[in-house]
Amino acid sequence: MTNTWEDVTWEEEHSLKEWVVEYIAKVGEDSTHHLTVIHGTGMEDVQKQLMHELRTTYMEASEIEVTVLRMEEIETEPNAFMFNDTFTP
Question: Partner of 42 at 20 to 30 A CA spacing, among 22, 33, 36, 73?
Answer without folding.
Answer: 33
